[in-house]
Amino acid sequence: MVQKVPQSSISGNSSFRSLLINGDMSICQRQPTQPGIQYSGYYSLDRWYLDISSTGTWTLSQSTTVPTGQGFFNSSKFDCTTADTSLGSGDRLFYQQRIEDQFCTFLKKGTSSTASVTVSFWVRSNKTGTYICEIYDSHNSRHISKSYTIDSADTWEKKIIVFPGDTTGAFANDNGVGLQLDFWLAAGTDYTSGTLATSWQANDATDRAVGQVNLADSTSNEWYLTGVQLEAGDAATDFEHLPHDVQLQRCQR
């Protein structure tokens, strides 16, 4: 007779509630440390994309610097190796994960029942000030941005940002790009000369990153990120730690 295994009663048991893959920066199937980066592409950590245009030179790496007591072993580290102290109008730098349309349909975007989403993450940098976190709907060319502040230099800080649902623009049920989660690190006036889009709107580049500090202004600058979770609802839950084999398989999607 096969004995039934009781369901786990452990608090915070995984339920694949995060829309993101590799939010704990644990999977790195590329070279862990990649120097001399000046062009957009996938570097170091799986699933995470760097969008860069004329914004200095960077080393991206999988770091073991992590917040204490949170169950993380890795973070993504940005290290500025050639500075850009005077950004051109079209210069930009942001870290991004792209999510397939079919993974976003349950949010009911484009209907009156659309769900809010909450992003939570741990961040650290020597450069304090205002940073921008953006959700971009690639399928419908719509976006919303929220600011957060790094208050203390070289200190891990947990941030929680709630984005309201969008009643305009439904997702397709396919593997095209749906939502993009963008962490801005530097932006020229093409992205900062408007008014920050704190409500959903049709794409206006000038409203995407208003107020963003220039992380590229010194070779002393570093920026770390880990524990990133994007989930439905207007509250953050504990980070969903998935088994390594499950996370690896999701990265190989």
Short descriptors:
6-stranded antiparallel beta sheet, mainly beta, 3% helix, disordered N terminus, 253 residues, 13 strands, single chain, 7-stranded antiparallel beta sheet
Report on the architecture of this protein.
- With 253 residues, this protein is mostly beta strands.
- It contains 1 helix and 13 strands, in the order βββββββββββββα.
- It has one helix at 244-251, and strands at 33-37, 41-42, 49-53, 57-63, 75-82, 92-100, 117-125, 129-137, 142-150, 157-163, 177-187, 201-202, 222-232.
- The strands form 2 sheets. The chain has a 7-stranded antiparallel β-sheet, with no helix packed on it. A 6-stranded antiparallel β-sheet has the order 1-4-5-13-7-10, with no helix packed on it.
- It is globular and about 45 Å long.
- The two termini are 36 Å apart.
> How are strands sequenced across the largest beta sheet?
2-3-6-11-8-9-12
- Element order: H for helix, E for strand: EEEEEEEEEEEEEH
Termini separation (Å)?
36 Å
Radius of gyration: 18 Å
- Indicate the low-confidence ranges by residue numbers: 1-13
Counted beta strands: 13
Residue share in helix: under 10%
Determine the strand fraction and express it as a percent band. Answer: 35-45%
- Average pLDDT, rounded to a whole number, is 94
Q: Given the structure, what is the number of helices?
A: 1
Sheet of most strands: 7 strands, antiparallel
Judged by helices, strands and strand pairing, the structural class is mainly beta
